[in-house]
Amino acid sequence: NGIAPRSVMESLRSLIEPDHPIVTTGVGCHQHWAARHLHFGPDHATLLSSAGHGTMGFDLPAAVGAAIAAPDRKVLCVAGDGSLLMNLQELASARERNLDLKVLVLNNHRLGIVSQFQLITWGADPATGDFSTPDFVTIAKGFGFSGDRVEQPEELETRLGAFWKAQGPALLEVHIDPRADVSPMLLAGQPMDEMWMGRTQ
Q1: Is residue 153 domain-resident?
Q2: What is the pTM of this model?
Q3: Domain containing residue 89
Q4: Residue 138 and residue 141: Cα distance in Å, rounded?
Q5: Domain containing 33 — which CATH number?
Q6: Could you tell me if residue 201 is inside a domain?
Q7: Distance (Å) of CA 194 to CA 86, 122, 183, 187, 190
Q8: CA pair distance 183, 175, nearest whole angstrom
Q9: How many domains, in total, are found in the chain?
Q10: Angle at 150 between CA 111 and CA 141, to 5 degrees
Q11: Residue 200 lies in a domain
Q12: Between the CA of residue 72 and those of 141, 179, 180, what are the distances in Å?
């Protein structure tokens, strides 16, 4: 069923903490998981995100810009599969400039936040709940990135470590549990006591 997003983020947090990197995200479940589980602030990582604007695809272009603007900082792009597909071609921009950019793809094979909204509102998510994604690793290698994938929990620590230490641009695709939601979630116009707390609540 995939790896728990929290496990990925907690392993990532301990790995990147000494480097105080710039972390970029797009919009979706991955954005919430990164904001919730990574440490940001003057003595930690710096977060660049499209907070409140719903700009899917912000993650990779922002990471390219950050890597150019701050060549002395490590840059990590945390992306969801749907968000990354919005601007996947920017892998070329990173490779052309040989940026030390790391792209972590949390692949849940769905448009997570949209799927949640549809499940809450209509009880079904036929358009976004089973989202077909390409082979991100092969695509990354085609652009000149190093690429790897994690499908089992026991592979996570080793492959995440190798990804973070890789020289030059690298992409790691992690297959996460497609049932992992972001909660709580408050729909527009709803009172606080009708907040959605998860599928089992």
Answers
A1: yes
A2: 0.88
A3: 5-194
A4: 5
A5: 3.40.50.970
A6: no
A7: 32, 16, 13, 9, 6
A8: 20
A9: 1
A10: 85
A11: no
A12: 25, 38, 35
Provide CB contacts within 8 A for 110, sequence distance 6+. Answer: 82, 125, 128, 129, 130, 131, 178
- Tell me if the bond preceding 61 is cis, omega within 30° of 0: no
Task: Going residue by residue through the chain, which has 201 residues, state the pLDDT in tens, using 9 for 90 and above.
Answer: 789 999 999 999 999 999 999 999 988 888 888 998 899 999 899 999 987 777 888 999 999 999 999 999 999 999 999 889 999 999 999 999 999 999 999 998 877 677 777 777 767 666 656 677 899 999 999 999 999 999 999 999 999 999 999 999 999 999 998 777 777 777 777 788 877 776 655
Structure tokens at 173: 């695709």
Does residue 117 fall inside a structural domain? yes
Residue identified by tokens 């979630």 is 185
